[in-house]
Amino acid sequence: MTIQFAVLASGSRGNSSLVQTGHAGLLIDLGLGPKTLSSRLDEVNSSLDRIGTAVLTHTHGDHVQEATLRLLARGKVPLYCHEGHRVGLAQKATFGELDRLGLVRHFDDRPFLTPLGLRVEPVELSHDGGPTFGFRIEGRSERGRRPASVGYLTDTGCWTEAIADAMADVDALGVEFNHDVTLQLNSGRSPHLIYRNLGDRGHLSNDQAAGLVAAVLARSSPGLVRDVALLHMSDQCNRPKLALAAARAAVKAAGRRVAVHAASQSEASPNLQVKAGLRRRKTVACSLDLFPWEAA
C-alpha cells in the first residue's frame, strides 16, 4: 500500500501534516486555521471531507487551534491525544464538545490502530509543552510485504537511542531541524528564550537533528529511509541552506541514497508518495539531495 505524506505547514506559526491512505486522511496536529488548512489540503490533492482522524503531538498553540477543533466536531472526526494533553486542551471550549460527542480517544505508549487502518506508534519526546510525542505511522501490509511507514519527530530538545530505534527502517522520516546554534545565540532574543530553545526540553539544532538522522540510518536496512523532511525550521534562527547542508552531511557519511526536503511554513511541501521499500543486501554508496528550488 502506498501512503501519502504531505507537510501542510511547519514552523512556529503553525504545524500540520497529512498521512493519507486511499481516499481517507489522518492529520498530525491542528496548528492551522480551517481556511488555511483547507487551502493546503487542496495543494496536495486532498480535502477536508477526506479527513477521517487526527492525532496530536502536544498542546502548544502552533500545534492545535480551537477553530480547527471545532471543524473536527462538526465533521465527527475523532481526535487521538494523550491523557496528559487534557490539561492544555481543557482551556479550549471546543475540546469539551468533542469530548461530549465521544470523539476524544486516548493513546499511551502502546501502538494503536486508527479507524483508517493505520498503525500509530507514539514515541515520547522531551519538550516543555507537557507530554509531547512523535509517531511512527504504518499503512496496511499487502501480500506479506512490509507496510509503508512514516516517522514524524518534532518539538524535542534532545533525542535518545530509543527514539532512533523506533524510527529505524521507516520509508520517509520527518525530523525537526529547528535552529542553527550560532544564529540562536546571536538572535537578540531574551536569554530565557534562547536557553529554553537550546535546552533538553526545547528544540533540536541542525547538528543535533543531523545526529539523529545518522543514528536512524545506521539502524536501517539498505534501501529504506529514502526521504527525509526537515521540519519546524525557525525563520529567525535558521536558514534552509544550513539545515540542508547538515542533513546532507549525515546522509553522505552514511553512504545512503536519500532525498532531503526542506518543509515550509508558507506552502504544502514536501508532498511524498511513500511506498514500502525492499530490503537489499548491498548499500548504494551515494546520496541524492533535492532542494525545493531545484526540484521545481
Short description:
This protein has 10 helices and 14 strands. The protein is of the alpha/beta class.
Q: What's the topology here?
A:
Layout: E1 3-9, E2 16-21, E3 24-28, H1 34-43, E4 51-55, H2 66-75, E5 79-82, H3 86-89, H4 93-100, E6 104-107, E7 112-113, E8 119-124, E9 133-138, E10 149-153, H5 161-167, E11 172-176, H6 181-185, H7 191-198, H8 206-219, E12 227-231, H9 240-254, E13 259-262, E14 271-274, H10 292-295
Parallel strand pairs: 3-4, 4-5, 5-6, 10-11, 11-12, 12-13
Antiparallel strand pairs: 1-2, 1-14, 2-3, 7-8, 8-9, 9-10
Structural summary, described in words:
The chain is of the alpha/beta class. The protein has one domain: Ribonuclease Z/Hydroxyacylglutathione hydrolase-like (Metallo-beta-lactamase, Chain A, 4-Layer Sandwich). The chain contains ten helices and 14 strands. Strands 6-5-4-3-2-1-14 form a seven-stranded mixed sheet. A seven-stranded mixed sheet has the order 7-8-9-10-11-12-13. Strand 8 (119-124) and strand 9 form a beta hairpin. Helix 2 (66-75) packs parallel to helix 4 (93-100) and helix 5 (161-167) crosses helix 8. The longest helix is centred in the last third of the chain and has 15 residues, at 240-254. It is globular, with a radius of gyration of 18 Å. The model is unreliable at 280-296 (pLDDT under 50).
